[in-house]
Design a protein that fits this description.
This protein is α/β, with parallel strands linked by helices. It contains seven helices and ten strands. A hairpin with a 2-residue loop joins strand 9 and strand 10. The two termini are 15 Å apart.
């Protein structure tokens, strides 16, 4: 169960406490996030919504260790992320976080196989082990027959599937998705959300997603709204699918 009141029982996979983020813009101080509390359990699927500039992507960057808060703490599976050094954070991120972006961020000179294999090059897996992992996840996302294609030879929906395969190939603790359907047509967007839903319900993945798309958010277990740096739960949880 997702909670935003800071009264979780301490066993949550992700625990956020009193999270603040401020930026200085000239003489002006921008208070992006204000005292956020959040508890997310293993296997939860959370959608964050809110107007542009409300701090959604900033929150995802903090959860993924790409940015550091002004104050407050983030703990994942017992590790306090906000207390880690930059070097330790890099290793933690590689092991625990899978990122899915709106624009795919695929390397054009690498095939689908090569793009998915990239995170595994930082591990001690053998070439044969890497191949098995890559083939497994490409099959999972429905692209076993496209593994030798380059991004330019794929549709937008297929490119996002490659990006999702790359995000899950290391079996991360949780996935962060920033507008994963934002650059797709309706049919492709629905297919991507169906895939993300299967990762949650069939494979137990924990997903935190920023979206402007109500149809995408409707697939999440809980929809949380950010407005003026404050996080609130929507009236009633979305149905579990």
């Amino acid at each position: 169960m997702v909670r935003v009141d800071g009264n979780g029982n301490g066993t949550s996979l992700i625990r956020v406490r009193n999270l603040d983020k401020k930026y200085q813009r000239g003489s002006e101080e921008i208070h992006v996030l204000q005292g956020l509390n959040l508890d997310v359990e293993q296997g939860d699927f959370v959608a964050f919504m809110g107007p542009s500039g409300s701090g959604k992507t900033t929150l995802l960057n903090l959860l993924g260790g790409l940015d550091v808060p002004t104050s407050g703490s983030i703990t994942v599976a017992g590790d306090e992320v906000t207390a880690m050094s930059a070097k330790k954070l890099t290793g933690w991120r590689a092991r625990h976080v899978g990122f899915i972006f709106q624009m795919y961020n695929l390397i054009p000179v690498l095939t689908a196989f090569g793009n998915v294999e990239l995170p595994l090059l930082l591990t001690r897996l053998s070439k044969a082990q890497r191949r098995k992992h890559v083939e497994t996840v490409l099959d999972l996302v429905g692209l076993a027959d496209r593994m030798h294609h380059y991004p330019r030879q794929l549709s937008g929906g297929q490119e996002q599937r490659v990006a999702i395969a790359r995000a899950i190939v290391t079996d991360p603790t949780f996935l962060l998705a920033d507008e994963p359907t934002g650059d797709l047509d309706r049919r492709s967007a629905d297919e991507i959300m169906e895939l993300i839903g299967r990762l949650v319900h069939e494979h137990g993945k924990t997903v935190l997603m920023v979206t402007h798309d109500p149809r995408a958010a409707d697939r999440a277990h809980a929809v949380l709204h950010l407005d003026k740096g404050v996080l609130v739960e929507s009236a009633g949880e979305a149905p579990r699918r």
